[in-house]
Amino acid sequence: MSQNEAVDAEDPAGTGDTGHREDAEAPGATGTGRPDPGSGIPEHVRSLDPRSLRGLAHPLRIRLLGALREYGPATASQLGARLGESSGATSYHLRQLAEHGFVVDVPELGTARERWWRAGQRGIQSRTKDFTGHPDPAVRGAFDLLLHEVATIHAQELGTWLGTLHEWSDEWRDAGEVSDYSVRLTPELAKEMNQELQQVIEGYRERAVEAGVEGSAPVRVHVHAFPRAEEKPDGPGGRPGSGEGASGPAPGKNP
């Protein structure tokens, strides 16, 4: 099989891409999925700033927000049971998310004993360069944590799908996709490609079916695109696989 061939879901031998796109909705547990019409989640997407980033950048908070976007309103106890955490931990981190506006209280569902929560927006977006070059190391660290946690969640979701293929119908096994591609691009072309992929996905969001439609299921789509360093041959001034030689760092990389 060539590197550019799509891998059939019934013979999952390929790899997926990983990365983060500027101005893209942060994927996975950060919640890019369109909410159900009755979920009460506003349709707008929130842009991260350094303060809100630090309010979100915790593994449990990222998973809590993802669960609320995917499954709808819930209590701290329900979320704790779903995520394998104590209700005390989920309650604390929900309050922290609420302080930064990522989740909101749903008083019409709550009782005197327990509060209900829902996501405050359908997704978030960020500009990578606003955080990777930030002068505050705490902000850079928070952004790094966010990206790595999202990548971890993506790997877990894909692993769950591959581990449960036998439980799905032939139609869904055939519809699933695990593929990777290599193509030489400039940063401008890569960004254009990502934007076009986003438009394709948005088009299918507009065609999404209701939850009760027979044979339907929630579908996760992970979009990753990233550059790789050039490999240079062994010899003076170069290290195998390092992408650096006598001429300096790989194109587009900072020295």
How would you sum up this structure in a few lines?
With 255 residues, the protein is mainly α.
Distance between the termini: 36 Å
Per CATH, the architecture of the domain at 19-174 is Orthogonal Bundle
* Broad CATH class of the domain at 19-174: Mainly Alpha
Q: Main beta sheet: strand number and arrangement? A: 3 strands, mixed
- Strands of the widest sheet, in order across it, are 2-7-3
Mean pLDDT: 80
CATH topology assignment of the domain at 19-174:
Arc Repressor Mutant, subunit A
* Uncertain stretches of 5 or more adjacent residues: 1-42, 238-248
- Measured as a percent range, the helix fraction is 25-40%
Backbone shape: globular
**Tally of extended strands?**
8
Q: Output the radius of gyration.
A: 21 Å
CATH superfamily membership of the domain at 19-174, which one?
Winged helix-like DNA-binding domain superfamily/Winged helix DNA-binding domain
Number of helices: 8
Structural class, from secondary structure content? mainly alpha
Task: Summarize the helices and strands and which ones pair or pack.
Blueprint: E1 6-8, E2 24-25, E3 45-47, H1 50-56, H2 59-71, E4 74-75, H3 76-83, H4 87-99, E5 103-105, E6 116-119, E7 123-126, H5 128-132, H6 137-163, H7 170-175, E8 177-179, H8 187-206
Parallel strand pairs: 3-7
Antiparallel strand pairs: 1-8, 2-7, 4-6, 5-6
Helix pairs in contact: 1-6, 2-4, 3-4
